C-alpha cells in the first residue's frame, strides 16, 4: 500500500473550481450564503473545514499565511491548521498581521487594521443568522429572499424589554450592503465595526453547513440596532496587564485557586508589537 | 493539434483565480493576469485562462458565433471538459467578444430570489480598458471610480444598469483583455455620463 | 508576572506521539494486521465502507486500525481520503435482481420462489459467549447448498406488483442527484434522501426507525425481502461508449412493505421503503427502509407529525462525521466568546443590584 501524493493545497482541482465559482458568486452578492459542495477534510467538521477549504481555494504559493484562533497564533487548532498548509501548500507563514497576505481566523478580527492586499478568511460554524429563530432551511431561505427580517428585530427587541439592552455578545447579526442580514461568525461584537468599510476582502466558509459568503472591500456592514438602543461594543474598566492597551479585546486569565484574575489582549501579535517585541 | 493549456494546472489556475477574484472584489479595477498558455484564435490567452480556471464538466458554456469554431470548442472540451451548449439559457458561462452583437443579459440564467447564485457569468473578451467611461460605485469600491472598456457603447452600460436594478438576481461580467482582467458584478451601481 | 502560555506546537506533537504509543498497546503482543481486520472484523469493515462512502476493504481496515477501533473516527478517515481521489464518472445502476445471493429472507410469505436462504446470520444464535473463540480452535467446515442458487432471484415485491397490490416505482425517475457533488437543498428528492440515508450513522437511523415502530409516525412495515450477496459493477468509459464490468461488490438490500390507506385518487395499496448498503448490514438497510418510507409522508399525503417524517431534521443530522465534528468542537477554545458573555452577565447583575439599591433607598 503506497501513500498518495497530495495536490497543491490538498483539494483536487475540480473541488477547487467548484469552491472558486462559489466564491465569485459570494463576492458578487455580498452577504448571501452560497451553497457549495463542501468536502470532508482531514480535520473534523466544526474545526474550521469551511475556512480551510476557502483558504485552499484562494492560496498561491507566494502567499504568507497567518492562522489565529481566539486572536492567538499559538492556540492548538491554529497551530494544526497552519501546519496543514505548510505541509500541503508549502506556503510561508507569519504571526505578524501586517506581513500576512492571507489570514485565516476563528472568532476574532485582528486589532491591527487590515490593508487592501490582504484576505481575511473566517471559519463559520452556523452561517444562518436566523437559524436559532427558525430551524427550517426552507423557511429562512424564503425570509432572505423576501428581505423579511422582522423576526430578528423582534428577538433583539425582546432582549431590550427583558434586560434593558441587546443580550447578544458574539455572532452579532449585521446587514451587508443594505440587503442581506448575515452572521459574521462568532466574533465578539467588539469586532463588528472592523467588518465595515474594510479595505481587505473578507471571506466566510462554513464547511459542515456547506455555505460560503463574502464581504467585499469597502462594503457597508451595519450591526442591527434600534434608534433608541444604538449598537455598542464591549469595554473593560482596566487596560491590558501586559501592554497597557485600552482599546483591544481582553481575555480574562484566572491566576490562582482563590480566583484572582488579570486581563490581557486576546490578539497576541498586537500585544507583542505594543510591548515592542519581535 | 491542440494548443496547450496550463503547464502546472494547480499553480497556474491558483494564480489566475486570484487575479479574477481580486477583480470581482474590486469592480472596475483592471488587474494583471499573466498566463503561460496558448489559445486558439480568436480566444485570448487571458480568456482561455478564465475558462480553464472556472469551467469543467459541471458547467455548460455557450459561445457567441465569433468564438464558436471547432478549434475553440475542441480546446474547451479537451482542457476543461466543459460541455458546449447550444442553449444560452442553460449555460453557466457565456463567452463573447466585444466586436459582436452581445446577447441581452436577460437571456442568460438570472438565478432566483431564493438562489440568486444560480445565475450565469458573462466572460466578455475586449481589446482594452480606459479610465473614463462610466462611473462605478457599490461594494468593493471606495467612493466611486471611473471605468471604461474599448468597444462597448451606451447600450451595454444601460443593459448592465438594468441588470444591477434586479439585484440580487442577475448576471456578473468578467472582462478579459490581453494580459488583463476586470469585473462587473451585479452589485455595482453604474452611472452613465451623457456623452458615452 | 504573567507570561502567556506558548508551545501549542510541541504539545500537539507530544500528544500525537502518545496517541501512537497507546494505539500500539503492549509491544509484546503482535500488532494486528490489515488482513486480520479485513477477514475477521468484516462487519466493522462493512460499516466503515458504508458510512465512509468508499468500497475498499483494505483502506477501511487500515482506517479501523489507525482509529483504534473507533468506527466513527475510521469513517472520518475514509471520507477525508475520498476527498483526494480523482472521480472518473458514475457507474451504471446496480442490478440487484441478478445478485449472487448468499442470504435471502422474506417475512411476508412462508415460502417464496427461489426459497428462503438463511445464510451467515446472527439470527437464532443464542447470545452466549463462546469461550472456544478465546482460544485458537478452528470451526468445522460449513455445509453449502447442494445446487447452485438461482441467478435471477425473483423479487418478492414484484410478485405483489402483478396483482396491483404494490405501488409501482416511477417509470423514469430521471438522473439521480449526488449530494457529494451538489450541496443538498430542501426539499430533497427521494434519490438524494436515499443517498443521505445510505451514508447515515447506523445508530441514528436505527433510533429513528425504532421510533416509527413505537408510534412516532407509524408505517405498518413488513420485511418484504432482505437479500445479501454480490453484484457486478459496470462502467461506461466516455471513449468506449459501452459498459464494461469493472468488478463485483457485496451489498445488502431491504425492501419493506408498508400499509397505505389510499386517497381520493389512489386505491388502497402497499407502498415501499427501500434500503441498500455495502457489505453485510441488515440492521442498517432495514432502518434505512423504514426511515425512507417515513420521509415519503409528504408525497403520500400523510400528516407529518413525527421526527422521522421531517426531511430537514433527519437529513441534516444523520451524518456522523458532521455530527461528531460539531459536538466535539466544543473542546476547542471558546474563551473570547465566553469573555463576551462574562462581561454581559456581570453588567446585567450589577444593574439588577443597582435597581434594588435604588428601590431600597426610595423606601
Provide tags for this entry:
heterotrimer, A: 278 residues, alpha/beta, seven-stranded mixed β-sheet, three-stranded antiparallel β-sheet, C: 363 residues, alpha+beta, four-stranded antiparallel β-sheet, 4 strands, 12% strand
Estimated helix fraction of chain A:
25-40%
Structural class of chain A: alpha/beta
- Name the largest protein-protein interface in this structure: A-C, 70 and 54 residues
Global shape of chain B: globular
Stated plainly, the CATH topology of chain B is called Rossmann fold
Order of helices and strands of chain B: HEHEHEEEEHEEE
Task: Describe the main β-sheet of chain A briefly.
Answer: 7 strands, mixed
Estimated structural class of chain B: alpha/beta
Number of strands of chain A: 12
Could you tell me the radius of gyration of chain B in angstroms? 16 Å
CATH architecture descriptor name of chain B = 3-Layer(aba) Sandwich
Q: Could you list the spans of chain A in which at least 5 consecutive residues all have pLDDT below 50?
A: none
**Shape label of chain A:** globular
For the sheet with most strands of chain B, the description reads: 6 strands, mixed
Mean pLDDT across the residues of chain A is: 94
Multimerization state: heterotrimer
Distance between the termini of chain B: 43 Å
Number of helices of chain A: 7
Please provide a written account of the structure:
The complex is a heterotrimer of chains A (278), B (196) and C (363). Chain A is an alpha/beta fold and 278 residues long. Chain A is 27% helix and 18% strand. In chain A, the strands form three sheets. A seven-stranded mixed beta sheet of chain A has the order 1-9-8-5-4-2-3. Chain A has a three-stranded antiparallel beta sheet with strand order 7-6-10. The longest helix of chain A has 16 residues, at 13-28. The mean pLDDT of chain A is 94. The model of chain B has no long low-confidence stretch (mean pLDDT 94). Chain B has four helices and nine strands, in the order αβαβαββββαβββ. Chain B has 196 residues and is α/β, with parallel strands linked by helices. Chain C has 363 residues and is of the alpha+beta class. Chain C folds into two domains: 9-82, no CATH class; 96-119 and 149-168 and 180-319, no CATH class. Chain C contains twelve helices and four strands, in the order αααααβαααβββαααα. In chain C, 29% of the residues are buried. Chains in contact: A-B, A-C.
Amino acid at each position: 500500500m503506497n501513500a498518495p501524493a497530495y495536490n497543491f493545497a490538498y483539494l483536487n482541482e475540480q473541488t477547487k473550481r467548484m469552491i472558486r465559482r462559489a466564491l465569485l458568486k459570494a463576492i458578487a452578492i455580498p452577504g448571501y450564503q452560497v451553497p457549495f459542495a463542501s468536502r470532508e477534510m482531514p480535520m473534523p467538521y466544526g474545526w474550521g473545514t469551511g475556512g480551510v477549504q476557502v483558504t485552499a481555494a484562494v492560496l498561491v504559493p507566494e502567499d504568507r499565511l497567518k492562522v489565529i484562533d481566539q486572536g492567538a497564533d499559538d492556540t492548538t487548532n491554529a497551530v494544526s491548521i497552519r501546519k496543514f498548509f505548510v505541509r500541503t501548500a508549502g506556503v510561508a507563514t507569519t504571526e505578524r498581521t501586517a506581513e500576512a497576505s492571507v489570514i485565516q481566523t476563528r472568532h476574532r478580527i485582528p486589532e491591527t487594521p487590515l490593508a487592501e492586499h490582504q484576505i481575511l478568511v473566517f471559519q463559520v460554524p452556523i452561517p444562518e443568522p436566523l437559524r436559532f429563530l427558525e430551524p427550517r432551511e426552507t423557511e429562512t431561505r424564503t425570509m432572505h429572499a423576501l428581505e423579511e427580517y422582522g423576526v430578528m428585530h423582534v428577538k433583539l427587541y425582546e432582549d431590550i424589554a427583558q434586560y434593558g439592552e441587546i443580550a447578544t455578545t458574539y455572532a452579532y447579526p449585521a446587514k451587508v450592503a443594505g440587503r442581506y442580514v448575515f452572521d459574521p461568525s462568532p466574533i465578539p461584537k467588539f469586532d463588528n465595526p472592523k467588518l465595515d468599510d474594510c479595505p481587505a476582502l473578507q471571506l466566510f466558509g462554513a464547511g459542515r453547513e456547506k455555505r460560503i459568503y463574502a464581504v467585499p472591500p469597502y462594503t457597508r456592514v451595519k450591526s442591527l440596532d434600534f434608534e433608541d438602543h444604538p449598537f455598542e461594543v464591549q469595554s473593560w474598566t482596566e487596560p491590558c496587564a501586559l501592554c497597557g492597551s485600552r482599546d483591544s479585546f481582553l481575555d480574562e486569565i484566572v491566576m490562582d485557586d482563590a480566583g484572582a484574575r488579570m486581563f490581557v489582549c486576546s490578539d497576541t501579535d498586537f500585544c507583542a508589537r505594543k510591548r515592542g517585541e519581535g | 493539434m491542440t494548443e496547450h493549456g496550463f503547464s502546472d494546472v494547480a499553480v497556474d489556475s491558483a494564480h489566475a483565480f486570484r487575479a479574477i477574484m481580486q477583480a470581482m472584489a474590486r469592480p472596475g479595477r483592471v488587474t494583471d493576469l499573466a498566463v503561460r498558455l496558448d489559445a486558439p484564435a480568436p480566444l485570448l490567452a487571458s480568456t482561455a485562462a478564465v475558462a480553464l480556471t472556472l469551467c469543467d464538466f459541471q458547467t455548460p458554456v455557450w459561445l457567441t458565433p465569433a468564438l464558436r469554431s471547432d478549434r475553440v470548442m475542441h480546446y474547451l472540451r479537451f482542457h476543461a471538459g466543459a460541455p458546449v451548449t447550444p442553449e444560452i439559457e442553460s449555460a453557466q458561462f457565456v463567452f463573447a467578444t466585444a466586436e459582436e452583437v452581445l446577447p441581452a443579459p436577460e437571456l442568460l440564467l438570472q438565478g432566483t430570489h431564493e438562489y440568486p447564485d444560480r445565475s450565469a457569468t458573462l466572460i466578455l473578451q475586449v481589446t482594452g480598458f480606459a479610465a473614463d467611461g462610466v462611473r462605478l460605485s457599490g461594494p468593493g469600491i471606495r467612493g466611486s471610480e471611473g471605468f471604461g472598456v474599448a468597444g462597448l457603447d451606451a447600450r451595454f452600460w444601460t443593459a448592465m444598469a438594468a441588470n444591477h436594478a434586479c439585484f440580487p438576481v442577475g448576471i456578473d461580467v468578467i472582462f478579459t483583455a490581453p494580459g488583463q482582467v476586470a469585473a462587473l458584478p451585479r452589485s455595482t451601481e453604474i452611472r452613465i455620463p451623457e456623452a458615452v | 508576572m504573567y507570561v502567556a502560555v506558548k508551545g501549542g506546537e510541541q504539545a500537539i506533537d507530544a500528544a500525537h506521539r502518545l496517541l501512537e504509543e497507546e494505539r500500539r498497546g503492549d509491544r509484546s503482543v503482535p500488532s494486528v494486521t490489515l488482513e486480520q481486520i479485513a477477514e475477521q472484523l468484516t462487519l466493522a469493515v462493512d460499516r466503515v465502507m458504508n458510512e465512509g462512502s468508499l468500497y475498499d476493504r483494505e483502506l477501511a481496515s487500515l482506517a479501523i486500525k489507525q482509529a483504534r477501533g473507533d468506527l466513527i473516527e475510521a469513517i472520518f478517515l475514509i471520507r477525508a481520503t475520498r476527498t483526494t481521489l480523482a472521480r472518473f464518472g458514475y457507474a451504471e445502476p446496480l442490478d440487484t435482481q441478478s445478485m449472487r445471493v448468499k442470504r435471502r429472507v422474506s417475512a411476508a410469505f412462508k415460502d417464496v420462489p427461489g426459497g428462503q436462504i438463511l445464510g451467515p446470520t446472527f439470527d437464532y444464535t443464542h447470545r452466549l459467549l463462546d469461550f472456544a473463540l478465546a482460544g485458537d480452535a478452528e470451526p468445522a467446515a460449513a455445509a453449502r447448498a447442494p445446487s447452485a442458487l438461482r441467478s435471477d432471484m425473483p423479487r418478492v415485491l414484484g410478485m405483489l406488483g402483478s396483482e396491483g397490490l404494490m405501488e409501482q416505482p416511477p417509470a423514469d425517475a430521471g438522473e439521480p442527484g449526488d449530494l457529494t457533488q451538489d450541496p443538498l437543498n430542501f426539499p430533497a428528492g427521494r434519490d438524494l434522501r436515499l443517498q443521505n440515508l445510505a451514508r447515515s450513522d447506523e445508530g441514528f437511523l436505527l433510533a429513528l426507525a425504532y421510533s416509527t415502530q413505537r408510534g412516532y409516525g407509524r408505517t405498518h412495515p413488513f420485511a418484504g425481502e432482505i437479500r445479501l450477496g454480490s453484484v457486478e459493477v459496470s462502467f461506461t468509459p466516455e471513449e468506449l461508449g459501452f459498459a464494461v464490468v469493472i468488478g463485483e461488490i457485496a451489498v445488502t438490500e431491504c425492501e419493506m412493505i408498508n400499509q397505505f390507506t389510499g386517497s381520493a385518487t389512489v386505491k388502497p395499496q402497499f407502498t415501499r421503503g427501500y434500503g441498500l448498503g455495502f457489505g453485510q448490514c441488515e440492521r442498517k438497510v432495514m432502518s434505512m427502509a423504514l426511515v425512507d418510507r417515513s420521509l415519503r409522508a409528504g408525497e403520500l399525503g400523510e400528516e407529518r407529525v413525527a421526527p422521522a417524517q421531517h426531511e430537514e431534521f433527519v437529513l441534516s443530522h444523520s451524518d456522523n462525521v458532521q455530527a461528531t465534528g460539531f459536538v466535539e468542537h466544543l473542546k476547542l477554545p471558546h474563551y473570547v466568546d465566553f469573555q463576551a458573555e462574562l462581561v454581559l452577565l456581570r453588567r446585567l447583575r450589577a444593574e439588577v443590584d443597582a435597581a434594588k439599591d435604588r428601590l431600597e433607598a426610595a423606601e
